[in-house]
Amino acid sequence: MKKIYTCLLIGLLGLSIYGCGLPLSQTNNLSNTSNSLQTTPAQSTLIFYLPSDDGLHIIPHTIKTISKNNTATEALKEMIRADKNATYPLLPTGLTINNVTVSQGIATVDFSRELKNLSKGSTTELLFIAMTVNTLTEFPNIHAVTFSINGTPITYLNGHTDLTKPLKRDESYIQKKS
């Protein structure tokens, strides 16, 4: 009889110990989950503008990005990448961003020399300016934009728009939703 009580007591003790903890496989899953939550970077929205299909307006495009990549430079790089993959790209081949600096609400965008190869038409110039300025002014700390090529300020790109003064956001170029 004493052996039966001892066996029952050992069995109950084993069940109670097993029931108080999680199986090893679940414990491993919990630790993996908490590690993945700690290493998953925060996401944010990045907005850039591209020409409309009719080539007369610009359209906002939104992508999700890692928060640390939500910068003015990254927005312009995304704008250039997306334009390059468009059916009718507006921007010249090989165009890159050297840097973007912001001082007192004015962003200065320094483009590579390929910007000189932008089509000479006034519509192309106006769309390029609207795309760039509206993309940058999506950032709350940017209110106006100036342009340069390899560190040299641009006074006129194709002779149509005076670029000697900072340009402000102009929503008249944004295509209205129908």
Describe the structure in your own words.
With 178 residues, this protein is α+β, with helices and mostly antiparallel strands. 35% of the residues lie in helices and 23% in strands. It has four helices and seven strands, in the order ααββαββαβββ. The N and C termini lie far apart (87 Å). Mean pLDDT is 82; it is low at 4-9 and 11-37.
Keywords:
178 residues; alpha+beta; 5-stranded mixed sheet; two-stranded antiparallel sheet; 4 helices; 23% strand; globular
Percent in strands: 15-25%
H-E string: HHEEHEEHEEE
Helix/strand structural class: alpha+beta
**Roughly what percent helix?**
25-40%
Mean pLDDT: 82
Overall 3D geometry?
Answer: globular
Describe the sheet with the most strands. 5 strands, mixed
User: Number of helical runs?
Assistant: 4
Q: Taking Cα atoms only, what radius of gyration do you get, to the nearest Å?
A: 29 Å
Low-confidence stretches: 4-9, 11-37
Q: How many angstroms does the end-to-end distance come to?
A: 87 Å
Strand tally is 7
Secondary structure layout plus pairing:
Layout: H1 2-20, H2 24-39, E1 43-51, E2 58-66, H3 72-84, E3 97-103, E4 106-111, H4 122-136, E5 144-149, E6 152-153, E7 167-168
Parallel strand pairs: 4-5
Antiparallel strand pairs: 1-2, 3-4, 5-6, 5-7
Helix pairs in contact: 3-4
